[in-house]
Amino acid sequence: MNGSTGSTDGIAGSSAVPEGRLRDPIDMAFRHAPSAMIVADREGAIALANHAFSEFTGHAPDSAAGRPWPELLSHGDPARAWALHRSALEGRPRRQSGLSVTGADGASRRVSVESRALPADGDGRPAGVVVVLREPMRDEATLRVVTELRTENSDTVLWTLDLRTGRLDELFGPSPLGRLLAGDARDLEECLARVHRDDIARVRDAMEASHQGRDYEQRFRMFDRNGDERSLHARARFINGDRPRLIGIIDDVTEHVQLIRRLADRRRIEAAQGRQVTDLAAKLVSATTVEEVTGLLTEEFVPIFGGTTAGVMLVEDGKLRSSPAAAEASATVPMIDGRDAADTTYPMGAVVQDRQPRFFENRAEILERFPAVASILPYTSAQAWATVPVFGDRRVALGVWQVAWDQPHHATPDERALMLTLAGLAGQALQRVHRQKAELELADAMQKRMLPPKLPDFAELDISVRYLPARAGWRVCGDFYDVIRLPDRRVGLVVGDVQGHGVEAAAAMGQIRIAFRAYATNQGDPGVVLAETNRLLTETGEIVFATCGYLVLDLDTGEMQAAWAGQPPAIIATPEGYDVWEPETGPPVGVDADSKYPVTTRRLRPGDTLLMCSDGLVESADVAMDDGLDTVGAALRQQSDDVEGAATALAALAPAGRSDDIAILIARLNN
């Protein structure tokens, strides 16, 4: 093994050796080594090859001598072999698995190739390299096949990182994911440059821990060579030794992460829809008019199902009648409005009769089941329909709710169940509205009977009154007014507010108004009238009290004598301005039987307009009484010459809102 040319005993490049002469022990070891070995010069040309090489490849030593050893490899492996050769000359011995060598018979054989540099010669550079070719062991071959199958059609990279040099390699050659992520880059820093900026610090910290002998695991984002963001899961084991390294797997989990995000988005959307449904259902429960109920069904509920339009038809006297919202939303509604609710040739009539919903995914389906709709379809762009009964107690159909889509649509079981639930709530709301309407009509009639049916006429005095029930659900309330004709050309004016609402308050209001009339006709002093009324209320034993103001006006002199029991101040207005008059007040009547009520006197001049009102007009939780009085005074000034116009304007203005009932009495002394 002296590097000379020629061939002896299957060793390429060896000189002839006299028979019987013992060979150099190193030469003998090389020749009979169990692994295929070659020695190549710096340029890669084969100088020596042993017996195992000849047996493994079928190449005779003479035919192999002088050939660049990387060229013995097949397919695309020569380039990788040259990389091994250069690494060995640079002092970085490497082993590469998964290469193929071409034998003398043209067949390829899988090999693992390892290259190491020979000792340096006189110029300080390695004289060449020793290359060892090993046939994979059966277990190794099996592992390789399984690994290739595992990674061939999956987004996985098997990798190794030399912790000393920072060089990255794939264990069994380039994989599709490896090429997509890094291309030809093998330097760790080149690869880290593609890591998402929000993740790079965490990735580097974990890498530093691996230098201390720890295993590696991180999830991070990285941009591939196409610029697309990918989510990766990297795991590796630390391998100690002369060359400490990490060996591990990188899995592309982008689809998994995206799926989780989509699921999270879906849950957020479903949660938002759930909150929306809850809010809208609450609106149904609190709806007080038919228009509110049908408006919710035709407008606010439709987006939940992705529908285009919706309509509600109500059953009235055996006929289908459209709601105002439905009539505006669809051109086909007038074609159905007024039809017999028992006409089952149309979906709505069929739903009313058997109270079973109908769902049609397309036009063909609705035409197959209800051919009569062929005359209506040309007038609508809808392509799919859901027709649901609106029923109340005892499942009596009150109407039909129909949602339409402008493209074929399959209503899922969840959508169908939700539609039926909402339609049921709507039916309950409609029944409640009908009951409330009947109750309101009764309440209005009762309230009118409690108030004076007709006011007395006075040539010297124009009077206008208004009563406004609260909009907070109570129609029968305790506010009242009265005008009493008194002897000696005097007039008694009363405005009061009984505590509470409902029938009891109205009954108490009637009692107080009757007591006022009885005492006023016998007592000229308004303070005494209030005191007697107060004593009567306290002696009955009923827990009821009221604020009120009672004023006696002399039509000849304009003198006013006022006794107040916790009532808001009066307002006196002219076209030039207004004044807030605050008579001295006592406690509400019904609180203390011994209460006294002082009398305050003021003159009402001809042309002056007097306003007495309950606190519902000028005070609420959101409006202070002083602000309410100022607003009302300014409005009264504008209408001071017309008591009817002033009463109408103040009723419409209602600066404190309509959370409480309101009593208004306006009187103008004529010139």
Automatic annotation (TrEMBL):
InterPro entries named in the record: Bact_Sigma-Reg, GAF, GAF-like_dom_sf, PAS, PAS-like_dom_sf, PAS_4, PAS_fold_3, PPM-type-like_dom_sf
Annotated ranges, domain PAS: 18-92
Residues covered by region (Disordered): 1-20, 93-120
Keyword Glycoprotein in annotation: no
Keyword Hydrolase: yes
Keywords annotated in UniProt: Hydrolase
SUPFAM superfamilies tied to this protein: GAF domain-like (SSF55781), PP2C-like (SSF81606), PYP-like sensor domain (PAS domain) (SSF55785)
Matching NCBIfam families: sensory_box
PANTHER family: STAGE II SPORULATION PROTEIN E, STAGE II SPORULATION PROTEIN E-RELATED
Protein name in UniProt: SpoIIE family protein phosphatase
Organism encoding this protein: Nocardiopsis sediminis
